[in-house]
Amino acid sequence: LSRLQNRLSGRKITLSLDEHAKIWLADEGYDPVFGARPLKRVIQRALQDPLAEMLLSGEILDGATVAIHAGPEGLIIGDRVGTSHRDAPNNTVIH
């Protein structure tokens, strides 16, 4: 996660993951056989890819804080805080 945050820091974008989102990532990214090795793929699929699409579409602008929560169906990326966002739909659910 720190690598992703470092990438976004160039655009002054901050990620804010609640405790449930961190637990969701840990649960999804752990395999009894491989340990935490799958975690990198889970972070890419559940966070990096959707964030990249949201950046390209203009849903997230420079300087935004992006709140990430865990819901019953997966991670919820939304509830962006700050003045640098459009009036776009607030939540994107990632399964």
CATH architecture tag: Orthogonal Bundle
> What separation lies between the terminal Cα atoms?
18 Å
Strand order of the largest sheet: 1-2-3-4
Tally of DSSP β-strands: 4
Unreliable parts? 80-95
Helix tally equals: 3
Q: SSE order, as H and E?
A: HEHHEEE
Average per-residue pLDDT, rounded, comes to: 83
Verbal overview:
The protein has helices at 2-9, 19-28, 39-57, and strands at 14-17, 65-71, 74-81, 91-94. With 95 residues, it is of the alpha+beta class. The chain has a single domain (2-94), classed as Orthogonal Bundle (Helicase, Ruva Protein, domain 3). Strands 1-2-3-4 form a four-stranded mixed sheet. A hairpin with a 2-residue loop joins strand 2 and strand 3 (74-81). It is globular. 19% of the residues are buried. Residues 80-95 have low confidence and may be disordered.
Brief description of this entry?
By secondary structure, the protein is α+β, with helices and mostly antiparallel strands. The chain contains three helices and four strands; from the N terminus they run αβααβββ.
Task: Indicate the topology.
Elements: H1 2-9, E1 14-17, H2 19-28, H3 39-57, E2 65-71, E3 74-81, E4 91-94
Parallel strand pairs: 1-2
Antiparallel strand pairs: 2-3, 3-4
What attributes characterize this protein structure?
95 residues, Helicase, Ruva Protein, domain 3, 3 helices, disordered C terminus
